[in-house]
Design goal:
- This protein has twelve helices and 20 strands.
- It is an alpha+beta fold and about 375 residues long.
- Strands 4, 5, 12, 13, 14, 15, 16, 17 and 20 form a nine-stranded mixed sheet that branches. A three-stranded antiparallel sheet has the order 2-6-3. A three-stranded antiparallel sheet has the order 8-9-10.
- A hairpin with a 5-residue loop joins β4 and β5.
- α1 packs parallel to α9 and α9 packs antiparallel against α10.
- It is globular.
- Bound molecules: flavin-adenine dinucleotide (FAD).
Length: about 375
């Protein structure tokens, strides 16, 4: 998603762009359900791909955060921020399909399926060796952007090391069908070791993301659909009425991985290759879209890229944005994953405080939406 979005963004210039992707185009196996912030929606609208996403996108008008077994909740509304929506939920497979329509693909060269084999650079050029249709092919360019995900080959070939935090937790993702309307409210309900998010989807459905310790998620995967539904109803409660049925369940490990460097002269890492965040705070793609906007601007300002670009300004903005997103997702993963008496005491108090204290609540909302830096 990140590589194709960047290619589309840069295709508005005279640059010649090639997109290399190991996966075939049919991404029916991608089960991620993505919450996009309002800023991300604006960015994708400017790229003219929102029309293709709109039929599959559900609006988030309100966010309701609560803590099982404790009083207190935090409610954030789009109207508090004078916005038409706090965000939208779209299945990842439709984002991929919208990015890869024939019309969009004609704006740059595509090698797919094609695997990166080698990478090198001199002061004047960078070169990649890819394998496609059983043959090796060499591409040379002024810039190579590694948007090749969590296990980035670009990162490995460039010898860039990573810092990893393993939360020893997993996310179970499914789609839940409801008996009544969700009224565009996104719920996140924290419990002892994790959280259940129920995000509004089209057709009276919710994206269910249950994060918990590995052993609990493994045992939830063993349950029959009806037993899982019953357990979900018991843990989540009746805020969305009676839950009718679920679709297939999929699991994802919760880890935070951060590349120690994101730029090496003519080679840049972006998206999950630069930072993989826990999905608990729905930040990964939103952060990457913000990076794409900043990177595209930096590149276009420094055309024709005959000398190594000056990355200083980009790096300073990228670090600021990344540290905000990392603090939110690491904070949520860590604080809510621990049964600690002080934390248990602070959780409901903090939530009540947040709901009563409007300026602070708005500050928090703007922070999550990427409109504010956590330090400002
Ligand atoms: C369960 C779950 C829920 C999430 N929910 C949200 C959310 O609500 N909001 C949000 O903002 N983010 C969310 N995220 C995070 C988001 O999905 C990622 O941050 C984002 O998709 C990263 O995209 P990417 O393109 O960097 O990486 P990927 O989507 O992993 O893509 C990497 C690409 O690189 C290609 N590739 C890999 N190796 C090679 C190679 N050697 N040669 C050629 N190509 C290669 C792959 O084929 C693939 O197409 C969620 C993640 C998960 C797991």
């Amino acid at each position: 998603m990140v590589g194709a979005t960047l290619a589309l963004t840069l295709s508005q210039s005279d640059l010649r762009i090639a997109l290399v992707d190991a996966s075939p185009l049919n991404l029916g196996y991608d089960h991620r359900l993505i919450a996009l912030t309002y800023n991300s929606f604006c960015f994708l609208s400017d790229l003219n791909i929102w029309n293709a996403l709109a039929p599959y996108a559900e609006t988030i008008k309100k966010v309701h955060v609560s803590d099982r077994g404790h009083f207190g909740k935090v409610c954030l509304s789009a109207s508090d921020l004078q916005l038409p929506a706090l965000g939208y939920v779209v299945p990842a497979k439709y984002i991929n399909a919208a990015l890869n329509t024939l019309d969009n693909k004609n704006k740059y060269d595509t090698f797919r399926p094609a695997t990166l084999k080698n990478i090198s650079q001199t002061t004047s050029r960078a070169t990649v060796v890819i394998e496609t249709e059983g043959h090796e092919k060499i591409l040379t360019a002024n810039l190579i952007i590694g948007a090749d995900g969590t296990h980035s080959t670009v990162r490995k070939l460039m010898d860039i090391s990573t810092e990893t935090i393993d939360y020893r937790q997993k996310a179970l993702v499914t789609v839940t069908h409801l008996n009544r309307a969700h009224h565009n409210i996104a719920y996140e309900r924290f419990h002892g070791n994790g959280a259940i998010a129920m995000l509004p989807l089209t057709q009276q459905r919710c994206a269910t993301i249950w994060t918990d310790d590995n052993s609990i998620i493994d045992s939830l995967m063993q349950l029959s659909d009806s037993d899982f539904l019953q357990t979900l109803q018991k843990q989540f409660g009746y805020r969305l009425g009676r839950l009718l049925k679920i679709d297939s369940r999929h699991i994802y490990p919760l880890k935070m991985i951060k590349a120690k460097e994101v730029v090496k002269e003519r080679i840049i890492l972006i998206g999950n290759a630069a930072h993989t965040l826990s999905p608990i705070a729905a930040q990964g793609l939103n952060l990457a879209l913000a990076e794409i906007a900043m990177l595209a601007k930096t590149i276009l300002q420094q055309l024709p890229l005959s000398t190594i670009p000056n990355w200083e300004q980009y790096l300073s903005q990228q670090r600021q944005q990344q540290s905000t997103s990392m603090r939110i997702s690491h904070g949520l993963s860590k604080v809510f994953a621990k049964q600690h008496s002080l934390v248990n005491l602070l959780r409901p108090l903090g939530m009540i405080g947040l709901d009563l204290n409007n300026p602070f609540k708005n500050y928090f909302a703007r922070l999550v939406m990427g409109k504010k830096n956590i330090l400002s």
